Amino acid sequence: MDQLFSVTTNNDEETMLFAEKLAKTVGKGVVFTLIGDLGAGKTHFVKGFVKGIGSNSLVTSPTFTLLNIYEGGKYPVYHFDMYRLSSKEEAEELGFDEYFDLKTLDGIVMVEWPEQVEGLINCPHIEIKIEKLSDNQRKIIVGSKK
Ligand code: ADP
Ligand code: MG
User: Minimal CA–CA distance to 117: which of 48, 78, 54, 66?
Assistant: First the structure.
């Protein structure tokens, strides 16, 4: 990963605000992966991001459904959570790989637990790594991956 920059946030509001601002700088056709332990703040990051593209959709963890789609903003956000994925084949059955053709992607893709689908995200993407520094402090590292 090529590290682009990092920020430290002091509470969940700051993480959401950072993601909200970031969302305003990106267009459609961008894939993000979100890496971090349970409770790191990946879903809060998505919440802020979805707000930033102008959607009022309620963001929840798609832990059981694997995919939530948020409409109502500049473009749709496809939010995957691979935590409970049982196999890569299950992701392939979902049509997961169709989301990684950047030329035809009509929105933004965000993937929690990309480690579960290692090798399937085969397009250039932005990697967001969230490290827990203390109860309320997080280091958010933004990088690019080819
Ligand atoms: P994940 O999706 O990574 O499992 P969530 O976003 O669901 O994590 O939950 C993160 C938890 O950590 C929430 O309870 C949130 O309030 C808390 N939290 C505390 N400080 C922060 C911070 N700086 N950024 C994000 N979340 C934080
Ligand atoms: Mg989550």
Answer: 66
List, for residues 91-139, the tens digit of each pLDDT value: 988 889 999 999 999 999 999 999 999 999 999 999 999 999 999 999 9
CA distance 22 to 49: 7
Which residue has a Cα nearest atom 7 of ligand 1?
43
Cα(134)–Cα(136) distance, integer angstroms: 5
Task: Map out the domains of the chain as residue ranges.
Answer: 2-145
**Ligand 1 mutation pick, 7, 12, 42, max ligand atoms within 8 A of CB:** 12
Give me the residues paired with residue 112 across strands: 34, 81
| Mean pLDDT over each residue of the chain, to the nearest integer | 95
Fold of 2-145: Rossmann fold (3.40.50)
The model carries a pTM of 0.97
Detail the DSSP E strand segments found in the chain: 2-9, 30-35, 67-70, 77-81, 108-112, 125-132, 138-145
